[in-house]
Every structure is written in structure tokens, then in C-alpha cells.
Amino acid sequence: MNQTIKISNQQKIGEGGNWEVFEAYSENYPDYSSIILKTRNGDPNCSIKKYIEKFKLIQLNELPTVSFLEKIYNDGIAYIITENLNIVSPFYVSPNSVITKEQKETNEKLKALGSPIKNRTECVYEQKVYEEKIKVINGLENMINKVKEDLKRVSKKGIIIDYDSYFLKASNLENIDYKIADFDNIYEDRKNSFLDILENNFQEFERALNSFIDYFVIKEKRNEYKLCLTKTVHRQ
Questions:
Q1: 146 or 41, which is more confident?
Q2: How many other C-beta atoms are found inside a 10 Å radius of the C-beta of residue 159?
Q3: Residue 80: enclosing H or E segment and its boundaries?
Q4: Can you give the residue range of the structural domain that contains 24?
Q5: Mean residue pLDDT across the chain
Q6: What's the whole-number mean pLDDT along residues 155-183?
Q7: 205, 165 in Cβ contact below 8 A?
Q8: Are 54 and 2 in contact (CB under 8 A)?
Q9: What CATH number did the domain enclosing 65 receive?
Q10: 19-25 and 8-15 beta bridge pairing
């Protein structure tokens, strides 16, 4: 789809190095009480066309991801429009989008010294989960084993998925789950062997889940979950 649509109730909920992110409503998508809009902010190589192509690659290979992702126009501005995974909690969050307490303190010190600091908009859902902390992760080992099987399948096709592509959610009432919901850093590798690609994918997933545990889980449970991650990821 590449059309002009009507957008209302648009609110900025975060930004990264490449995109500004908004929640909004569109009467063109009546089945969704809320949708996500992204507009490019930064690297000109992060084109909407390439982003959509990578989404389709993930979708084609049947990895968990958003239900739709398209290019639209609103007031002459090109956007990506996609599913809002966080209409209800628990929320899917990316450890790549957190502004930690330590980072905030460092920024305040640099500002006081007169150093130029870019005021990045906090990612609403990431900051909420970061501040409240997850107390229990259910089904961790099963989820890791599922991801391993998913990564074995796509690694055979030469697909590399970097850590910042992963969004995870967990609560005391539901099993932990993951989706691939950012598509900037997904690549096709035609040079390296299956085993090299698989090892790279395992490392990126392990990095994502380790960071998820560090940022979003209560301190008392982190070692337990990290031990489970290490044992399960590297088990043959």
C-alpha cells in the first residue's frame, strides 16, 4: 500500500537513531484501536522501501512479527504504518530503546558543564517497564528453545538478525514471548557458512535477552534467568 490516509490522535512515543515513532488512530484501519507510525529520522540509508523489504523477508520465513507494515502518506509526509503491539499490557519492549538512570545522570552532568546533549524523546513503553520492573519470567527455557529453532531455520537461508530487532514481553500471568519488530539491522549473508551465521544469530539473540533481563527484570531474579539463558542457548 502506498496511499494518503487520515490520521488522528497522533502522539509521539519515542525515537531512535533512525526513526521517530508515534501512536495514532486511522479510520482507514478500523480494526485497530491504535496503530504505530514511523517517520525517518537520521541515516538516509534507512529507507522505507528497504525497511519494508526486510519485514517481508521475516514474514516470509514465518518468524513472529507484526501483522502488517506498509508505506503511507499523511500531510505529504511518508510514514511506515504498522501494528501497535502495546495496546494492552504486558508490553513488548526493546532493551535498545531504554534511557537508563545512569544515562540520565550523565546527561545532566554534561548539560551542567555546557556540553551539547541531544534531547532524545523517551520511549514510553520501555521506560514504563524499566521503571516498574518485571518480577517473574514464565516459560523462559521453552521460549529460548523456540527461538533457537527459528534461528536455525532462517540461518539456513543466510538471514542475520541483530539484537535490536527483538522485542520481548513478560509478566507473572503470561509466558515470555518475542517478536521481530524492528527491521533496520536484518541482513542476507551469501558468503559465510550456515554454522557461522547461526552462531552470529545466537550471539545477537543472547545479547538481546541478556539486556532485556538487565534493564527490565528485578535485580533478585537476574542471575537465575541469565544462567537459564546461557545453559539453554548453548545446549546442543
A1: 146
A2: 21
A3: strand 77-83
A4: 2-83
A5: 92
A6: 96
A7: no
A8: no
A9: 3.30.200.20
A10: antiparallel
